């Protein structure tokens, strides 16, 4: 079981702590505000008031023992950068950091953050794709060029098998799962017969996904 520390309990960090609690993950929640610590104490395994800009404090928290540390400060870019730097120097296995803008992203990348998160930008992309297409119901960016999308099967796909569709050969992307009501069919076989309203979870290059959405579904 992973052990995760969330540093900074604003909207993003606090939401993470709540979600980790739902998933049964041991989480240490840290903030310099005692009010924030008290607010999320019931969701975290440990909730601690501390100044993470202080390297000895991070050592005292046993931060090196955590599998993943998320630096989720809000507008305090300097605190985010310095804390991330301390964590990398202390040898934390994985450091994920929230970025406010492109400049912040570049600095976090330079000092070795393992993953940089843009919650507002990422959510904006998901919402934009949802609004722009009548077929796409969710969108997750994997990299600059690759994504996962959830696409609703139309009349065009009803009673067709995945073998007949041959999505991989025709469009270059892959159907990795099919959701039908409450059931999810992971790694569906080629003989799986699709029904109107099925949700196809498709992975691939963005251009291939766009072609499949426009012509295949």
TrEMBL record:
InterPro entries: NAD(P)-bd_dom_sf, RCK_C, RCK_C_sf, RCK_N, Trk_Ktr_HKT_K-transport. Residues 134-217 form the RCK C-terminal domain. Residues 1-117 form the RCK N-terminal domain. One of its GO terms (biological process) is monoatomic ion transmembrane transport. Keywords: Ion channel, Ion transport, Transport. It comes from Robertmurraya beringensis. Transmembrane segments: none annotated. This is Potassium channel family protein. It comes from the Bacteria. Coiled coil: none annotated. Pfam families: TrkA_C (PF02080), TrkA_N (PF02254).
């Amino acid at each position: 079981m992973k052990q995760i520390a969330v540093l900074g309990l604003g909207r993003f960090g606090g939401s993470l702590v709540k979600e980790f609690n739902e998933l049964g993950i041991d989480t240490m929640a840290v903030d310099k505000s005692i009010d924030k610590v008290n607010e999320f104490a019931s969701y975290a395994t440990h909730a601690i008031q501390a100044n993470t800009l202080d390297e000895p404090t991070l050592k005292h928290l046993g931060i090196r023992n955590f599998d993943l540390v998320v630096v989720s400060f809000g507008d305090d870019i300097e605190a985010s950068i310095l804390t991330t730097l301390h964590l990398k120097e202390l040898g934390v296995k994985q450091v994920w950091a929230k970025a406010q803008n492109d400049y912040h992203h570049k600095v976090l990348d330079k000092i070795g953050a393992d993953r940089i998160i843009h919650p507002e930008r990422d959510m904006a992309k998901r919402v934009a794709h949802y609004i722009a297409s009548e077929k796409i119901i969710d969108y997750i960016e994997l990299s600059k060029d690759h994504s996962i999308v959830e696409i609703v099967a139309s009349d065009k796909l009803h009673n067709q098998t995945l073998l007949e569709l041959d999505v991989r050969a025709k469009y270059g992307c892959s159907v990795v799962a099919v959701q039908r009501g409450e059931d999810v069919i992971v790694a569906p076989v080629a003989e799986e017969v699709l029904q109107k309203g099925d949700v196809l979870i498709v992975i691939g290059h963005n251009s291939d996904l766009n072609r499949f959405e426009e012509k295949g579904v």
